[in-house]
């Protein structure tokens, strides 16, 4: 049994998006009863601020023998050819590899947006490889946050309103919005810009609002696809400093993709993908 005694965390994130083009073969659905059992030991009473109690030696997520192919123009394109990895609590993990090597494909599967054709993905006791869309969505909304290269903020809403919207979408009680929004904007160093709308913020500031939004519902895992790609090196470094801070403050685990060797220097571990597999793991 996994050593998770996590404080509850009401809720959900709005970020989930694209659906996979096909489902895993042999997708044996897990019953709601089984999911409830998993919930029973992965969560316990608490709040958006309570400390998490967990065994740091037990992985938050394991990926075993994962393969993913796509059918393109009648031909099979093998993108992931046997991926094995484990993410441990409060780690900062990076995926690197040339364009088209499969980093986003893997990130989507870790986040429960897509499923492997073969292999296993277990996140906090939830078998993503054999659970249905609805079950993965429930887990994702509660435990996972997403950050994208292009920030994905609502353009007409202020930084404060963007974060508050995430809480509203996650069904967090209105009484908690003010405190949690202020906390998240403070964590990313934007308390002084809370009333600015995205176009009134720099690229780095916009990405920091996106981080505040992604952690608002207190996920256990933050997935970021090229979060610094549109930023200059100084703003990229600021985003990485924020990542380091929130790992400690929120006890979150971060898995991100990047092409930038300077950014990789702050990782706890870098997985390099070549021809659908990791090398040097
Ligand atoms: N839904 C899909 N249907 C068909 N092919 C796909 C699909 N998704 C991804 N691919 C293919 O899988 C390969 C890996 O794509 P992926 O987006 O994971 O690469 P990446 O490593 O994230 O690249 P980049 O660094 O450019 O973001 C690419 O060749 C891509 O064309
Ligand atoms: Mg990509």
UniProtKB/TrEMBL annotation:
- Per its UniProt record, what CDD domains does this chain match? ABC_MJ0796_LolCDE_FtsE
Q: Which SMART domains does UniProt cross-reference here?
A: AAA
Boundaries of every ABC transporter domain copy:
61-279
Q: Which Gene3D superfamilies match?
A: P-loop containing nucleotide triphosphate hydrolases (3.40.50.300)
User: What's the superkingdom here?
Assistant: Bacteria
Which GO cellular component terms, listed alphabetically, does the Swiss-Prot or TrEMBL entry include? membrane protein complex; plasma membrane
The UniProt keywords, alphabetically, are: ATP-binding, Nucleotide-binding, Transport
Q: Which Pfam families match?
A: ABC_tran
Q: What is this protein called?
A: ATP-binding cassette domain-containing protein
Region Disordered: start and end of each range? 1-28
Q: Single GO molecular-function term?
A: transmembrane transporter activity
Record flagged with keyword Transport: yes
- Say if the entry is tagged with keyword Oxidoreductase: no
């Amino acid at each position: 049994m996994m050593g998770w005694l996590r404080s509850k965390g009401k809720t959900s994130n709005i970020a989930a998006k694209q659906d996979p083009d096909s489902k895993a073969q042999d997708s044996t659905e897990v019953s709601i009863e089984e999911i409830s059992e998993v919930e029973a030991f992965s969560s316990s009473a608490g709040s958006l601020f309570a400390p998490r109690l967990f065994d740091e030696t037990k992985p938050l997520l394991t990926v075993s023998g994962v393969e993913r192919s796509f059918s393109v123009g009648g031909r099979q394109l093998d993108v992931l050819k046997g991926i094995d990895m484990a993410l441990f609590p409060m780690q900062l993990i990076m995926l690197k590899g040339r364009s088209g090597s499969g980093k986003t494909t893997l990130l989507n599967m870790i986040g429960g947006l897509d499923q492997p054709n073969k292999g296993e993905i277990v996140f906090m006791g939830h078998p993503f490889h054999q659970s249905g869309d609805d079950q993965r969505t429930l887990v994702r909304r509660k435990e996972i946050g997403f950050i994208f290269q292009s920030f994905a903020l609502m353009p007409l809403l202020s930084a404060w309103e963007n974060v508050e919207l995430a809480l509203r979408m996650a069904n967090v009680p209105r009484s908690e919005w003010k405190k949690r929004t202020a906390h998240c904007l403070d964590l990313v160093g934007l308390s002084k810009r809370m009333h600015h709308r995205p176009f009134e913020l720099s690229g780095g500031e916009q990405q920091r609002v996106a981080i505040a939004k992604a952690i608002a519902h207190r996920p256990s895992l933050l997935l970021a696809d090229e979060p610094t790609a549109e930023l200059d090196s100084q703003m990229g470094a600021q985003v990485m400093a924020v990542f380091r801070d929130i790992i400690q403050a929120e006890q979150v685990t971060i898995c991100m993709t990047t092409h930038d060797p300077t950014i990789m220097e702050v990782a706890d571990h870098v997985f390099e993908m070549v021809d659908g597999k990791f090398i040097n793991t």
